[in-house]
Amino acid sequence: MADVSVKTADFVNVIISTSCEANFVEKRYYKGITVQDLKGKLEVVTGGSAATMKVKVFDKADKLVCELTDDNALIGSYPIDEGMRIHVEDQFVLRKQLDDEFQVQKFELSEQEYENRSDTLKAYLQRNKLGKYDEEEMQKKASEKKKEEELEQERLKTIAVDARCQVSVPGQPTRRATVKFVGKVSFSPGNWVGVQYDEPMGKNDGSVQGVRYFECSPKYGGFVKPLYVEVGDYPEEELDLDDEL
Length: 245
Known about the structure:
Blueprint: E1 11-18, E2 25-30, H1 35-46, E3 54-58, E4 64-67, E5 85-89, H2 92-101, H3 111-116, H4 121-128, H5 135-156, E6 164-167, E7 175-184, E8 191-197, E9 207-208, E10 211-212, E11 221-224, E12 229-231
Parallel strand pairs: 1-5
Antiparallel strand pairs: 1-2, 3-4, 3-5, 6-7, 6-12, 7-8, 8-11, 9-10
């Protein structure tokens, strides 16, 4: 991930699931920790190993959002929002067999027992009116999200395929490009703008996860949210090769 700084709220409440059990656990994590630190915490929650686990993020519609592949990146640099599900894949079957051999007993709670306990994360959040239990904060977030969606819709009206543009993503250098795609994608919810950068400062060739949205040379393609794209009469940037050997 290129952007390694936290851009949203400091903490996020998520649901933890694994590839071996149907049980879910609610957890709250600081977005300033690295993916490696998160895996260490997930070891305690899931019984997996930070060295071998794969961590994926799904939205509330159970659609894959991203995979946490960069151990050095901050989790806040990934699009992880409130209520999303962090799914851990690991060699749980082998670990379960080892547990059974040594007769390791699991401590499990029924849903009702969990609700009745006062020392759970959910009870803590409810008691302190945090996360989704903070009605005022949730209303504020809903209002901000609605305003952002309205601004995005207005910006989309100005963006058309083949238009010249300037891309300004927070935490990244401003880049000039040509719009090549506008609309929905399979790798993330919402509207996205596919661009062909003037210089090889992108992440793809117009395709993501096996789906092609437009054609361009490798490292020249990228996808950004509409609010970061400004259409205008931007001349094409030229590479300065005078100082290169």
